[in-house]
Amino acid sequence: MANIELVELTKHYRQGRTVVRALDGVSLEIGAGEFVSVVGRSGSGKTTLLDLIGLLLRPTAGRVLIGGEDATRLRDNQRADLRGQRIGFIFQEYNLLPALNVLENVMLPLRYTRSKVNGRRRAQELLDEVGLGDRLKSRPGELSGGQQQRVAIARALINDPSVVLGDEPTGAVDTETSQELVGLMRWLNRERKVTFVIVTHDLDLAVQANRMIRLKDGRVLTDEPVEHAA
Question: Is 1 domain-assigned?
């Protein structure tokens, strides 16, 4: 069963008298447990695609199905519930709250869901997995960029999502740290069977995926397996 299904997905914006076709009739299926990279030049539709999958935008036309549920038919509060339960996010700039410590930042999404898990215990387990089990009380400003992104990855997993979306997750770190983060995400993908969809300009990251989707002018140009992925 597809974890993500996009059916003739379209998103148009109007700028004055001009209609910008950010996404133009994209149909895709992404299976449970896949690791997919999405590449393309600026303006190709990558971020729009990610925002539509993440239910942050509504499409102009078409459908977005998450785990078989048609999100385009849901009210805003239902979409928010679905997003909180099934989708985790990793951002380029980490988006950690400086006033909270590492443990509190990872637990933060639990405030906005109905999850009954032991948040502190789960956050500690996730931080152990990403190699930061000894930094629970540190503030984001006391961590390196790579460590902050590891916190963000743990936060993305706190609600046990079926899908994790990454928007340039290695864009703010150096090459060596980028490789470490890619290795961590691939390990989590394999161990936790979580679907990863990563938008990136970094081809070194893109080719680590099991499948690469290339966009151009809001349409799918190519969609191919990456044969040499480890």
Answer: no
